[in-house]
Amino acid sequence: MHLYEVIKRPLVTxxxxxxxxxxxYAFEVNTEANKKQIKDAVExxxxxxxxxxxxxxxxxxxxxxxxxxVILPAMKKAIVTLKAGDKIQLFEGV
Length: 94
What we know:
Layout: H1 3-6, E1 7-10, H2 14-19, E2 24-29, H3 35-46, E3 50-58, E4 61-65, E5 68-72, E6 75-82, H4 89-92
Antiparallel strand pairs: 1-2, 2-6, 3-6, 4-5
């Protein structure tokens, strides 16, 4: 799997913003990717050192919009912990 196929997008939520203060960053990743691939992709894309990778598989769910029900697809989230002193500038708002 190619480097840019592993990481889909960074997750910027209230919870992920508070995790950034302790050096943890959240990404939506490909459902086929494993921890080793995620670690390599983050290290190469952002030129940082990754300490640990935690992965969360979220199942498909439904959401109500008016009278309709919309099916949200399944996704995989990765929370990446960086070594002390490393930061990802994408989140910091250069």
